[in-house]
Amino acid sequence: MTFSCDAAPEILPKNIRPSFGGHPEKHLILLHGWNAGSASLDSLKLALRALPPSQEWNLWSVDYPTHRWNFRRGAREIAQSLRATNHDFSDTIFLGYSMGGVVARQIVADGFPFRALVSVAAPHQGLARWVPTHSPGTASIHRRSRLLKELNQSAADKAARFRYHFFSITYSDMVGFHAHDGLVTRSSALGDSLGEVASRENLDFVQRGFALHEPHMRGMSARDMNAVIHTCARLMQPKSTPE
Hints:
Blueprint: E1 2-7, E2 27-31, H1 42-49, E3 58-63, H2 71-84, E4 92-97, H3 99-109, E5 116-120, H4 136-140, H5 146-152, H6 155-160, E6 164-172, E7 177-178, H7 186-189, E8 199-206, H8 214-217, H9 226-235
Parallel strand pairs: 2-3, 2-4, 4-5, 5-6, 6-8
Antiparallel strand pairs: 1-3, 6-7
Helix pairs in contact: 2-3
């Protein structure tokens, strides 16, 4: 597992742990999905860095093995590695794509401090029924996963949901409307069974031809994620009142 961080306002090379100097200890941590790496979210990271509020924030990228690790182990290892940097993470925003959104929730449920959590196309209620189990990683986010069931029933997770912002992806093609993105259903990505959260929003795309899982992959592209970027910009604004 590797970390890289852009210390505002500079963009530093990947896999560098910079000195934060006098920068405020505000952190936005991006967590990639299954079968991907931190570079898959570079588009979103650059778009976030271009936001005026982000100049006070440190943007972290994380690489973790999604094939060999289930989401619970990924959360544990990531949190341990973050704490080992000796930075103050009491003001943290998590942005998780796909499996990364579930990893982020587990990190929070395990007691990591945070301001807000944003997930995009994350299988909070499991992957779509037609998606096979490829590895320990996908088995942990399967619809019948014991680990996912335990997270969804966790008291710590329930107590934190008022700070969760869930985005789902659906699409329309020549056949009609599809209430999924090819891998995750709208209901699962929005966590419909999880009760009240801070916000839920669906992003509907138009696809040409046979889409397969392309709509899901578009969740990594800043070009299609304006609503997500705007939400992050709002969340990065200075707190007006103490919580």
